[in-house]
Amino acid sequence: MSQTILILPGDGIGPEIVTQAEKILNYLITVQGLPIILEHGLIGGAAIDALGEPLPRETLEKAKSSAAVLLGAVGGPKWETIERHLRPERGLLAIRSGLGLFANLRPAVLFPQLANASTLKQDVVNGLDIMIVRELTGGIYFGEPRGIRTLENGERQGYNSLVYAEHEIDRIARVAFDVAGKRNNHVCSVDKANVLESTELWREIITNVAKEYTNIELQHMYVDNAAMQLVREPKQFDVIVTTNMFGDILSDLASMLTGSIGMLPSASLAADGIGMYEPIHGSAPDIAGKNIANPLATILSLSMLFRYSLEEISIADKIEAAVNQVLTDGLRTKDIFTSDTTLVSTEEMGDAVLAALVAVI
Ligand code: IPM
Ligand code: MG
Predict the structure, then answer these.
(1) So what's the pLDDT on residue 273?
(2) The pTM is what?
(3) Where are the beta strands (DSSP E) in 136-196?
(4) What is the CB < 6 Å shell around ligand 1?
(5) What is the pLDDT of residues 31-49, one digit of tens each?
(6) Does the domain at residues 1-100+271-361 carry the CATH identifier 3.40.718.10?
(7) Which one of 33, 99, 140, 341 is least enclosed by Cβ atoms within 10 Å?
(8) CA pair distance 203, 66, nearest whole angstrom
(9) Domain locations along the chain
């Protein structure tokens, strides 16, 4: 039986990077005969322009009936001034929430070929392999009440709520411990329990769940210290589990250890079934349409899609091997370019990965 993959290119560089991943999908379908049907949908600014809302009902319905979703990026200056609840980013949050994608896996892996593209010393980042498990459908991103209100004295006040219920912490803890069990059995839970009650509860629940995972070593760290440790000695980490906002921030930080935010993929998983796959970077409107964006984070997200949603491990491995090969061949988009390598465009990088895949398949 065929499985459907819904493709949501989104905005900015989204369409051009997703096109590169689609080349791989089309090859796997038409030449290798993989039983996959590709559907396309609108999200973010593209959906606002066409249909007046960042997550049209049709897109969410299509996503719900798909095996997996591959997303580019959303947002851009064009939509920054429209009503808050209609902005592109709201579409992204709504699809995460609408599909119940509470577990966001963000691997930060250094390809050895890129060790000199990192701004950190090579011996600090060589061999880096961290998995950030970010809670994705709760916390301050979704907590109520939220808004901008006018106080009695006429001054305006912005407010958000950092809210976590026990079950939300419990389930993300289990994902982190399970992931660690397949890696190096170490979990660092990042919170701000010395100041924020919601993360005091976070720490308590994580500690309780850990008692069921006797093979896993659990450590707690405050987020400010974690940010420092990630730059000071990043290789001390195996799995990091943290809240929605801390995970957002720390994953951008971790990406720079690997050379570029253009290299980091992600998988967002629901309790059972559907997964959504997207690069962790944004829509980069400043470089959109210039054919210079790095498509590798999206291509690696496609690899995660095969690994986690379709359970096609061998294809996932081969896509990663193809990415490895183009890097070994010295091909680099602008963000990871160094003087001893060959500068290529978005298109050329996509074609090169496809050619490398064809060679190993
Ligand atoms: C990310 C992005 C999003 C987030 C934005 C675009 C809403 O930064 O996926 O990390 O904050 O989650
Ligand atoms: Mg982010």
Answers:
(1) 78
(2) 0.95
(3) 147-150, 156-159, 186-191
(4) 75, 89, 92, 248, 280, 282
(5) 999 999 999 999 999 999 9
(6) yes
(7) 33
(8) 35
(9) 1-100+271-361, 110-260
